[in-house]
Description:
Elements: H1 3-22, E1 24-27, H2 31-39, E2 44-49, H3 52-61, E3 67-76, E4 82-94, E5 103-114
Amino acid sequence: MKPWPVLMTTMAFCAITMAHAQERIAVHNARPLLIAAIDSPSGQAHGILVGDIAEAITQRFKGTTPIHIDVSTERRYAQPGCSRLKVRFWQDGVQLPGVPVPRRQTIDFGVDYCRDGQPPRSLL
Length: 124
C-alpha cells in the first residue's frame, strides 16, 4: 500500500477526533449546557465538568477520564426557550465500593427547563 492513502486516512481521522473533542466545553456546572441545548438547532450540547467538585469526585472514585456531560432535547415546549432535556453525566474508570473492576459510571436524568432557570409554566 502506498503511504499517501494511509497518511490521508490518518489525518482525516485525527481531524474528526479533534473536531469532536472541541465540541465539549469546560463548565463548572451543567446550566450552560442546558441553555446551549435549548438554543441549539440540533438540541444537543456537550461538556466536561471542571473545578473543585469535578476534581473531588474524580479523586474519590479514581475516575480515569474527565466527567462528561451530554444534554439532549427530548421535547420543545410551546413556551419559548423551554424544553424537556435529558442530561447524562459519565466518567470512565470509576471504582465503586464493593465493585471489583473499574467501569464507566453513568447518571441520567430528565429536567423540564427554561433559559431563565425556571420550569415551564405549561408542559404543552
